Amino acid sequence: MSINSNFYNQLQTKPKAISFDWDGTLCDTRPAVVKAINFVLKKYNLDNWEITKSKRDKNKSFKENFPNFFNDSYEQAYIEYLDYYEKECLDNVKIIDGSDVFLKKLINSGIFIYIISNKEKSLLMKEAMIHFNDISFKNILGNGDAIENKPSPAPLIKAFYELSIPINCDNFWHIGDTNQDYDSAVKANVLPIMIVKGKLKEKTNFEF
């Protein structure tokens, strides 16, 4: 999986700001997430992630799904998940090829960049510091920073509102890899750009 920054040069118009999802968009975090959730599931004598993931509500964040996985023990299980992830799984997170070059190209062109993720903020900040410590993000929003998580438009609106520029598809884009990213962008009146098999695509299948 990689991000090819050459498409940027083909654009006739450029946005004022672009927000990025994190997991599966700028970093490959799946090995870390699976390792951590399987550790906690095993501790509670529950089925592994390949089975348990079928209980997930795809319209909710990972944290918001913990009651579906752990029932009444979800709060303690989530604390244990975060603790194990931070101590044992950060080394399993890998940057998506080309994403650092792509981000620097945007910044050098005067485009503000954001991270807008449903990931727990503490983990998000640690991973961003490890993998993009030389990148100046305008803001980083994680789980709970807005009144609702994606697929609500609230995180995108909160991030872009500070620029005092009309929020529309000409001025703002959101790049992500899930339906939550697409739905959030559409509801916020922001252009959704989807990563499909490592390539940047608009949801309409127009490829740059």
Characterization of the model:
- The chain has 208 residues and is α/β, with parallel strands linked by helices.
- The chain has 8 helices and 8 strands, in the order E-E-H-H-H-H-E-H-E-H-E-H-E-H-E-E.
- The strands form 2 sheets. Strands 5-4-1-6-7-8 form a 6-stranded mixed beta sheet, sandwiched between helices. It has a two-stranded antiparallel sheet with strand order 2-3.
- Helix 8 links the parallel strand 6 (172-176) and strand 7.
- Helix 1 (30-43) crosses helix 4 (74-88).
- The longest helix is centred in the middle third of the chain and has 15 residues, at 74-88.
- The radius of gyration is 17 Å and the shape is globular.
- The two termini are 16 Å apart.
- Residues 4-8 and 202-208 have low confidence and may be disordered.
